[in-house]
Amino acid sequence: MTYPKVYVSDIKLNEFEILSGIEIDGVGIKINISKLEELKSTLKQFSVEKIFITQVADFKLIEALIDTLGKEITLQIQDTSLSINTLALIKKNFENIKIIAPVNVNFEDALDKATKLDEIVDCIFVCAQRKEKSKLTENWQKAAIINLKTQKPIILAGRLNADNIHQAIKIVKPFAVSVISGVKNDGNVSCDKLVNFLKNTKRMEA
């Protein structure tokens, strides 16, 4: 059975030591422009896949980030308002970077946007977050449709935790899952929660 990759997002620099002994596939790091050099230095020590998360929605600023971090990085665009044309321009100018762009299933045009992104980006970040836990399954079903209708791999995110991750994977069948709050206590990564999350991500049916 093929299991999805597990990415832990919104990682702080001081949390890398905690994660070094746990078998995750990658980390998502929010870019702090004032600490780019420190970030580059710290990340050299770790071999897991690194996804740089940015809220920047301006091409020139994104260009500056890429020039600093390197032209073979994986860049996750967090701003859903960034236009398809701007994403295409980034991809055209920086062919070697991998771009992950977001789709929120709570929006009516989610499938249409995912279809357009499918022609440009390398991976689609599907946010299925819902405040009402009872509605999560409905959003996972929407995410599953996006996965079926697009060719690029999808990363599933949004209120995932050890209790619901197995069901989410069964419904959506994503390439990867991204977890934040589901493995944290008081804003910091919990080893116990993360280990339990990983265990349930790879749990086989009895």
Structure description:
The structure is a single chain. A hairpin with a 2-residue loop joins β9 and β10. The chain is 36% helix and 21% strand. The longest helix has 14 residues. The chain is of the alpha/beta class and 206 residues long. The strands form two sheets. It has an eight-stranded parallel β-barrel with strand order 1-2-3-4-5-6-7-8. A two-stranded antiparallel ribbon has the order 9-10.
Q: Provide the gyration radius in Å.
A: 17 Å
For the residues shown, what is the average pLDDT? 88
Q: Note poorly predicted spans.
A: none
For the terminal residues, how far apart are their CA atoms?
14 Å
Q: State the shape.
A: globular
Biggest pleated-sheet summary = 8 strands, parallel, barrel
Beta-strand portion reads 15-25%
Would you list the SSEs in sequence order as H and E? EHEHEHEHEHEHEHEEEH
Structural class: alpha/beta
Strand order of the largest sheet: 1-2-3-4-5-6-7-8
* Number of E-state strands: 10
* Share of helical residues: 25-40%
